[in-house]
Specification:
Elements lengths: L15 H28 L6 H8 L3 H7 L3 H18 L1 H7 L2 H20 L2 H10 L7 H19 L8 H14 L6 H14 L3 E2 L4 E2 L1
Antiparallel strand pairs: 1-2
Helix pairs in contact: 1-2, 1-4, 1-6, 4-6, 4-8, 5-6, 6-8, 6-10, 8-9, 9-10
Length: 210
Amino acid sequence: MSPPEPIPTDAQAGSPAADRPVRADARRNREKLVAVARAAFAAADDTVPLEGIAREAGVGIGTLYRHFPTREALVEAVYGAELDDVATSAPALLDEFPPEIALRAWMDRYAVFVATKRGMIDTLRTGWASGRMATPATRERITAAIRVILAKGARAGSLRADVEPEDVTTMLLGVFLSTAAGGTPEQTGRLLDLVVDALRPKDEGSGTTG
Protein backbone atom coordinates (compact mmCIF):
# COMPACT_ATOMS: atom_id res chain seq x y z
CA MET A 1 0.00 0.00 0.00
CA SER A 2 1.43 3.35 -1.02
CA PRO A 3 2.02 5.92 1.71
CA PRO A 4 -0.37 8.89 1.65
CA GLU A 5 0.79 11.95 -0.24
CA PRO A 6 1.96 14.77 2.02
CA ILE A 7 -0.54 17.56 2.55
CA PRO A 8 0.89 20.82 1.09
CA THR A 9 1.42 23.62 3.54
CA ASP A 10 0.03 27.14 3.10
CA ALA A 11 3.46 28.35 2.05
CA GLN A 12 3.67 25.98 -0.88
CA ALA A 13 2.97 27.52 -4.28
CA GLY A 14 -0.40 26.69 -5.73
CA SER A 15 -2.20 26.25 -2.41
CA PRO A 16 -5.40 28.28 -2.01
CA ALA A 17 -4.15 29.91 1.19
CA ALA A 18 -0.91 30.95 -0.49
CA ASP A 19 -2.74 32.37 -3.50
CA ARG A 20 -5.38 34.35 -1.59
CA PRO A 21 -3.15 37.20 -0.35
CA VAL A 22 -1.68 37.61 -3.82
CA ARG A 23 -5.12 37.77 -5.40
CA ALA A 24 -6.39 40.18 -2.76
CA ASP A 25 -3.37 42.45 -3.23
CA ALA A 26 -3.76 42.34 -7.00
CA ARG A 27 -7.45 43.13 -6.70
CA ARG A 28 -6.74 46.14 -4.47
CA ASN A 29 -4.12 47.40 -6.93
CA ARG A 30 -6.56 47.08 -9.82
CA GLU A 31 -9.33 48.86 -7.95
CA LYS A 32 -6.94 51.64 -6.94
CA LEU A 33 -5.74 52.08 -10.53
CA VAL A 34 -9.31 52.31 -11.82
CA ALA A 35 -10.26 54.82 -9.09
CA VAL A 36 -7.24 57.03 -9.80
CA ALA A 37 -7.83 56.81 -13.56
CA ARG A 38 -11.47 57.79 -13.14
CA ALA A 39 -10.49 60.97 -11.30
CA ALA A 40 -7.69 61.72 -13.78
CA PHE A 41 -9.89 61.33 -16.84
CA ALA A 42 -12.63 63.48 -15.30
CA ALA A 43 -10.19 66.33 -14.63
CA ALA A 44 -8.19 66.09 -17.87
CA ASP A 45 -8.41 68.34 -20.88
CA ASP A 46 -5.87 66.26 -22.81
CA THR A 47 -4.30 62.79 -22.85
CA VAL A 48 -3.65 61.42 -19.36
CA PRO A 49 -0.14 59.88 -18.95
CA LEU A 50 -0.35 56.31 -17.69
CA GLU A 51 2.82 56.82 -15.67
CA GLY A 52 1.06 59.52 -13.65
CA ILE A 53 -1.88 57.20 -12.93
CA ALA A 54 0.48 54.46 -11.70
CA ARG A 55 2.38 56.93 -9.54
CA GLU A 56 -0.78 58.36 -7.99
CA ALA A 57 -2.04 54.84 -7.30
CA GLY A 58 1.19 54.01 -5.51
CA VAL A 59 2.28 51.25 -7.88
CA GLY A 60 4.89 50.85 -10.58
CA ILE A 61 4.10 51.20 -14.27
CA GLY A 62 4.74 47.47 -14.62
CA THR A 63 1.90 46.74 -12.23
CA LEU A 64 -0.41 48.96 -14.27
CA TYR A 65 0.49 47.12 -17.46
CA ARG A 66 -0.02 43.73 -15.82
CA HIS A 67 -3.61 44.71 -15.13
CA PHE A 68 -4.15 46.81 -18.24
CA PRO A 69 -1.79 45.84 -21.09
CA THR A 70 -2.95 48.80 -23.21
CA ARG A 71 -4.41 52.26 -22.70
CA GLU A 72 -7.59 50.95 -24.29
CA ALA A 73 -7.88 48.23 -21.63
CA LEU A 74 -7.66 50.82 -18.84
CA VAL A 75 -10.09 53.18 -20.55
CA GLU A 76 -12.57 50.35 -21.12
CA ALA A 77 -12.41 49.40 -17.43
CA VAL A 78 -12.90 53.01 -16.31
CA TYR A 79 -15.76 53.60 -18.73
CA GLY A 80 -17.46 50.39 -17.66
CA ALA A 81 -17.15 51.25 -13.97
CA GLU A 82 -18.53 54.75 -14.53
CA LEU A 83 -21.42 53.49 -16.65
CA ASP A 84 -22.30 50.83 -14.08
CA ASP A 85 -22.35 53.43 -11.31
CA VAL A 86 -24.60 55.90 -13.08
CA ALA A 87 -26.89 53.28 -14.61
CA THR A 88 -27.53 51.45 -11.33
CA SER A 89 -27.67 54.41 -8.93
CA ALA A 90 -31.33 55.30 -9.48
CA PRO A 91 -32.88 52.83 -6.97
CA ALA A 92 -30.54 53.89 -4.16
CA LEU A 93 -31.29 57.57 -4.79
CA LEU A 94 -35.02 56.85 -4.79
CA ASP A 95 -34.67 55.11 -1.45
CA GLU A 96 -33.05 58.23 -0.02
CA PHE A 97 -34.91 61.12 -1.69
CA PRO A 98 -38.32 61.99 -3.16
CA PRO A 99 -38.39 61.22 -6.92
CA GLU A 100 -37.88 64.80 -8.15
CA ILE A 101 -34.89 65.26 -5.81
CA ALA A 102 -33.53 61.84 -6.75
CA LEU A 103 -33.79 62.78 -10.42
CA ARG A 104 -31.78 65.96 -9.92
CA ALA A 105 -29.14 64.10 -7.87
CA TRP A 106 -28.96 61.41 -10.56
CA MET A 107 -28.41 64.09 -13.21
CA ASP A 108 -25.39 65.33 -11.25
CA ARG A 109 -24.05 61.79 -11.23
CA TYR A 110 -24.63 61.54 -14.97
CA ALA A 111 -22.77 64.84 -15.45
CA VAL A 112 -19.73 63.33 -13.70
CA PHE A 113 -19.92 60.35 -16.06
CA VAL A 114 -20.00 62.64 -19.08
CA ALA A 115 -17.04 64.64 -17.76
CA THR A 116 -15.03 61.45 -17.26
CA LYS A 117 -15.91 60.30 -20.76
CA ARG A 118 -14.55 63.52 -22.27
CA GLY A 119 -11.10 62.75 -20.87
CA MET A 120 -10.92 59.48 -22.77
CA ILE A 121 -13.15 60.07 -25.78
CA ASP A 122 -10.39 59.71 -28.39
CA THR A 123 -9.39 56.30 -27.06
CA LEU A 124 -13.02 55.23 -26.83
CA ARG A 125 -13.78 56.24 -30.40
CA THR A 126 -10.69 54.50 -31.76
CA GLY A 127 -11.35 51.34 -29.76
CA TRP A 128 -15.02 51.16 -30.71
CA ALA A 129 -14.33 51.86 -34.38
CA SER A 130 -11.63 49.19 -34.57
CA GLY A 131 -13.65 46.60 -32.69
CA ARG A 132 -10.92 46.24 -30.06
CA MET A 133 -13.36 47.54 -27.45
CA ALA A 134 -16.93 46.36 -27.03
CA THR A 135 -19.55 49.00 -27.76
CA PRO A 136 -21.62 49.36 -24.58
CA ALA A 137 -25.37 49.98 -24.59
CA THR A 138 -24.80 53.35 -22.95
CA ARG A 139 -27.88 55.22 -24.15
CA GLU A 140 -30.17 52.30 -23.42
CA ARG A 141 -28.88 51.94 -19.86
CA ILE A 142 -29.09 55.67 -19.19
CA THR A 143 -32.66 55.77 -20.51
CA ALA A 144 -33.57 52.76 -18.36
CA ALA A 145 -32.37 54.59 -15.23
CA ILE A 146 -34.41 57.66 -16.17
CA ARG A 147 -37.45 55.45 -16.75
CA VAL A 148 -37.21 54.06 -13.21
CA ILE A 149 -37.14 57.55 -11.67
CA LEU A 150 -39.92 58.93 -13.87
CA ALA A 151 -42.17 55.98 -13.07
CA LYS A 152 -41.70 56.46 -9.32
CA GLY A 153 -42.29 60.19 -9.68
CA ALA A 154 -45.45 59.65 -11.73
CA ARG A 155 -46.85 57.35 -9.06
CA ALA A 156 -46.03 59.92 -6.40
CA GLY A 157 -47.51 62.75 -8.46
CA SER A 158 -44.28 64.76 -8.38
CA LEU A 159 -43.14 64.05 -11.96
CA ARG A 160 -45.09 64.03 -15.19
CA ALA A 161 -46.50 60.74 -16.42
CA ASP A 162 -46.67 61.80 -20.08
CA VAL A 163 -42.91 62.05 -20.75
CA GLU A 164 -40.88 59.55 -22.75
CA PRO A 165 -37.64 58.62 -20.95
CA GLU A 166 -35.81 58.69 -24.27
CA ASP A 167 -36.79 62.36 -24.68
CA VAL A 168 -35.23 63.16 -21.30
CA THR A 169 -32.03 61.41 -22.37
CA THR A 170 -31.99 63.56 -25.50
CA MET A 171 -32.48 66.75 -23.48
CA LEU A 172 -29.66 65.85 -21.10
CA LEU A 173 -27.31 65.07 -23.97
CA GLY A 174 -28.17 68.47 -25.41
CA VAL A 175 -27.27 70.16 -22.13
CA PHE A 176 -23.93 68.38 -21.87
CA LEU A 177 -23.06 68.89 -25.53
CA SER A 178 -23.87 72.60 -25.46
CA THR A 179 -21.78 73.21 -22.33
CA ALA A 180 -18.85 70.93 -23.19
CA ALA A 181 -16.64 73.63 -24.73
CA GLY A 182 -17.15 76.89 -22.89
CA GLY A 183 -19.77 76.16 -20.26
CA THR A 184 -19.26 76.26 -16.51
CA PRO A 185 -20.50 73.80 -13.87
CA GLU A 186 -22.82 76.53 -12.63
CA GLN A 187 -24.39 76.91 -16.06
CA THR A 188 -24.76 73.15 -16.41
CA GLY A 189 -26.48 73.07 -13.02
CA ARG A 190 -28.93 75.79 -14.01
CA LEU A 191 -29.81 73.96 -17.22
CA LEU A 192 -30.36 70.71 -15.35
CA ASP A 193 -32.65 72.58 -12.94
CA LEU A 194 -34.68 73.73 -15.94
CA VAL A 195 -34.95 70.16 -17.21
CA VAL A 196 -36.30 69.01 -13.85
CA ASP A 197 -38.76 71.93 -13.79
CA ALA A 198 -40.02 70.85 -17.21
CA LEU A 199 -40.69 67.37 -15.85
CA ARG A 200 -42.88 68.52 -12.97
CA PRO A 201 -46.66 68.07 -13.41
CA LYS A 202 -48.51 71.00 -14.90
CA ASP A 203 -50.92 73.00 -12.81
CA GLU A 204 -54.04 72.57 -14.91
CA GLY A 205 -55.65 75.64 -13.39
CA SER A 206 -52.90 78.04 -14.39
CA GLY A 207 -51.26 76.21 -17.26
CA THR A 208 -47.91 76.41 -15.53
CA THR A 209 -45.74 73.77 -13.96
CA GLY A 210 -46.17 73.14 -10.27
